[in-house]
What we know:
- Helix content is 49%, strand content 0%.
- The protein has helices at 9-22, 26-41, 69-77.
Amino acid sequence: MRTTIDLPDDLLAKSKRLAAEAKRPLRAVIEDALREALARRHPSRQAAPVRLTTFGGSGLQHGVDLDDRAALLDLMDTPR
Length: 80
């Protein structure tokens, strides 16, 4: 979307220098700055911790190789 904004001359000059140094369009530099400012104002909510159910035991079942996906799928499909 296009819009027009008035910026102080010194801020525009600094922004143009930053864009030139970073070899990025001025638009991208301004977008990044605005996104950062908005993110600081409204920090994202921290996700609730995940609780994983674990079971006691002595480790992996005999013959299970977590690096061998095909063998692992075969073991999971085998009835007990």
